Amino acid sequence: MTEREKMLAGQLYDCGDEELLNQWHKAKNLARDYNQTDSENAAEKDHILTELLGGRGSNLWIKHRFC
Question: For residues 44 and 30, what is the distance between their CA atoms, to the nearest angstrom?
Answer without folding.
Answer: 11
